[in-house]
């Protein structure tokens, strides 16, 4: 199953309700997924998984090893390395599940937020804002 490729652990499955719950990380955050049958309306969503910076820097290769293609983010940058949202600051890598939900690995970065809407690659952020 797709979410097990992300190393989420199946916590519980209720067949009659067509729902599965997965534990995320050591703190056992939980993700619940409901099956949608024909005729039901499906609302795509977005979920961000908090990871360490070290994990994020390796995440593009890690996803590809599992047959999951990182996606171009919402800002037109190709998935060649994590991108930085300067207003947080946080770095991210985006990908989709088989249903089209937007998923993200994210880590907060050290440093002060830069109050712009600028999105740039992690390497460029380091050159420009980390002195």
In brief:
The protein has 131 residues and is α+β, with helices and mostly antiparallel strands. Helices cover 19% and strands 33% of the residues.
Question: What can you see in these coordinates?
Answer:
The model has no long low-confidence stretch (mean pLDDT about 85). It contains 3 helices and 8 strands; from the N terminus they run αββββαββββα. The strands form 2 sheets. A 5-stranded mixed sheet has the order 4-7-6-5-8. Strands 1-2-3 form a 3-stranded antiparallel sheet, with no helix packed on it. It has about 130 residues and is an alpha+beta fold. It has 2 domains: about 35 residues, no CATH class; about 90 residues, 2,3-Dihydroxybiphenyl 1,2-Dioxygenase, domain 1. The chain is about 20% helix and about 35% strand. The radius of gyration is 16 Å and the shape is elongated. The longest helix is centred in the middle third of the chain and has 13 residues. The relative contact order is 0.17.
Distance between the termini: 43 Å
- Report the CATH architecture of the largest domain: Roll
In terms of per-residue confidence, which ranges show pLDDT below 50 for 5 or more consecutive residues?
none
Helix share bin: 10-25%
What is the CATH class name of the largest domain?
A: Alpha Beta
Strand content: 25-35%
Rg from alpha-carbon coordinates: 16 Å
Which fold does the CATH topology of the largest domain refer to? Answer: 2,3-Dihydroxybiphenyl 1,2-Dioxygenase, domain 1
Which structural class do you get from the secondary structure elements?
alpha+beta
- In total, the number of strands is 8
């Amino acid at each position: 199953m797709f979410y097990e490729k992300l190393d989420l652990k199946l916590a519980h499955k209720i067949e009659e309700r067509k729902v599965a719950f997965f534990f995320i990380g050591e703190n056992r955050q939980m993700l619940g997924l409901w099956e949608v049958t024909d005729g039901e309306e499906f609302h795509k969503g977005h979920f961000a998984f908090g990871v360490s910076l070290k994990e994020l820097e390796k995440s593009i290769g890690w996803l590809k090893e599992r047959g999951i293609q990182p996606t171009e983010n919402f800002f037109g940058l190709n998935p060649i390395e994590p991108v930085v949202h300067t207003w947080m600051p946080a770095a991210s890598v985006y990908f989709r599940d088989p249903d089209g939900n937007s998923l993200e690995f994210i880590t907060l970065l050290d440093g002060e937020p830069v109050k712009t809407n600028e999105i740039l690659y992690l390497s460029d952020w380091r050159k420009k804002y980390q002195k």
